[in-house]
Structure formats: structure tokens, C-alpha cells
Amino acid sequence: MGKFSRTEQLLANHWRLGCKLLWNQEELVAGLSAFMQENHIESVVDVSGGNGFPAIELRRKGWDIAYNDYNAFMKEQVEAQIKENDDFVASMPCTQVSWEYLDSVIVPGSYDMVICRGNSLPYAVSWSVNQICDPEKAKVIIQKALAQFFKVLRPGGVLLVDKSSFESAGIYVIQKEGVVDSKECHIHWVFVNDVQSGIRRWDQYNTVEKETTCLTVYSLLITEKMLVDWLTTAGFISVCPTSIQGENIYTVLTARKPLGILPD
Fold first, then answer.
1. Rounded to whole angstroms, what are the CA distances from 112 to 21, 37, 40, 47, 149?
2. Cβ atoms of 94 and 55 closer than 8 Å
3. What is the reported pLDDT for 2?
4. The Cα angle at residue 160 between residues 178 and 232, in degrees rounded to 5
5. Could you tell me if residue 61 is inside a domain?
6. Distance (Å, rounded) from C-alpha 15 to C-alpha 84?
7. Is the pTM for the entire model greater than 0.70?
């Protein structure tokens, strides 16, 4: 058996292709940069770093950003990518730690901004493991994660978190085709929301040069109200939907850590 499971590798490759096809990456990086400039952000940690987008691109723009992801295969790929860049990009801090233990590698009160994008939050207990999500366990872990995001922020710091815009019961399909790395590619992603069980199923069909690979991943089905309530419980204020240039897939929320709260 190899170093990484087939599921870890498939998930990383599928997500990379989705990021290339679904977003205008230059536009989204510009939108995030504008938001950070407007909010006087100097230091950032992307806690859902994935395949390195947008952390690497933001680092290339000069932003002091760090990377974290619990998927070991993705982290290894990112570390290989940044070695090919200049010293500032190559020195981007990269960690692999579960969200509920962030403060084991990040000093509390270290960052002006925490990014958790890509609808990553609902996968707190099911990312990379290809198993049905336990809704009650997921709710506990997600709330612990939000408490950790709060903890590593400086007073006045900002959390940017997004979620799926599809939260009603039903089946939703996203399809996109295009050329990636000089190869004809197509994604056919089917999302099934089961409101009764609180579970969301994501069936992925990715085709590269007529070769299709499939993967199914499960997550907690999070509504905007659930997320707002959890953010408020964690201590965040000014929780609100926020428009980010270039983000046309997910619903983005931002929240602040109040001033005057000292690190533990």
C-alpha cells in the first residue's frame, strides 16, 4: 500500500480540478486581497488550505499567509509547489493539524484573519475518510473548530468562512468543462441534501481526457442560521453575509473577534 490512500489522492485531484474550472482564480485572489486591504489585515492563516488555492497565490501577491490542511497528501503537494517559488513563497508556514487542535501549532492571538473557505467546515469529521458523516459528532467538532478559529485570532481579527448556497432538501448539480494543463476536462458533481438526517452527499465524477474517476464524500448539512448561531456562541460579533469579488459558488460570512479579549 502506498503512503497515501486512494481516497486522499482522488479527493485532492478532484478538488484541484474543480478549483481550476469553477473559479476565475485571478479574480477571486483580487477579491480577497481587496477585502483584506479594506480591513487592514496583515497576517492570515488559511485553515482549509486544500491544494494551496488561494493561499499560494495570495503569498505570491506579498500577503503574510500561512497554510493548514488535515489532508496529508494535499499538504505534501503544496510543500512541493512552493519550493519552486521565491524565498518568501517557499517559506510559507505549512501545518497539518485537525481544527480542534489548532492552538497546538498556532500561538493564540497570532493572526489578523482566519480563512476557512471551499465549504470546508461541514467536512470537519469526514474529509478524506469516505465515510458517512455522524451529524451529532460533526456539530460538536465544528463548534470546537470555531472556538479555535476565535482563539488564534487577534482581538479585532476577522474570520472569513463560507458554506454551500444549497441548503434546502433536494438534488443539485454542478457541471463545468474546460482545458486544464492542456487536457480536456469535465466535472459533474451531484449534491444530495437530506434534511431529515442532516447529511449532505457529494457524488463527484471528474473526467480528464475521457477517463472518468468517481468519489462520494459526505458532510453535515449546515444552514446559514446554524452557522450564524455557532459563530455567535463562539464569541464572534458582527456576523454577516459578505460579498467577495470572484466568489460565485458559495455563501460567504465574515465575523469579528471583539477588541479587548486577551489570548488565553
1. 30, 12, 9, 13, 11
2. no
3. 59
4. 140
5. yes
6. 22
7. yes
Q: Confirm whether 138 is domain-assigned.
A: yes
- In the chain, what's the furthest Cα-to-Cα distance? 56
Reported as a single tens digit per residue, the pLDDT across 31-85 is 999 999 999 999 999 999 999 999 999 999 999 999 999 888 899 999 999 998 8
71: containing domain: 6-165+222-256
CATH number for the domain including 83? 3.40.50.150
The backbone torsions φ and ψ at residue 53, rounded to the nearest 5 degrees and listed phi first, read -100, 125
Could you tell me if residue 87 is inside a domain?
yes
* 73 within domain boundaries: yes
Shortest CA distance to 114 belongs to which of 34, 32, 192, 178?
32
Contact between 210 and 109 under an 8 Å Cβ cutoff? The reply is: no
> Which of 160, 43, 166, 161 minimizes the C-alpha distance to 93?
43
Following CA atoms 188, 253, 67, 123 in sequence, which dihedral angle do they give, to the nearest 10 degrees? -50
Give the tens place of pLDDT for each residue, 137-155. Answer: 999 999 999 999 999 999 9
Query: In the chain, how many domains are there?
Result: 1
Q: Which sign does the torsion angle of CA 95, 97, 103, 105 carry?
A: negative
For residue 187, what are the contacts with CB-CB under 8 A and spacing of at least 6?
A: 14, 17, 18, 21, 22, 174, 175, 176, 177, 204, 205, 206, 207
Q: How far apart are the first and last CA of the chain?
A: 43
Residues 6+ away with beta carbon under 8 Å from 2: none
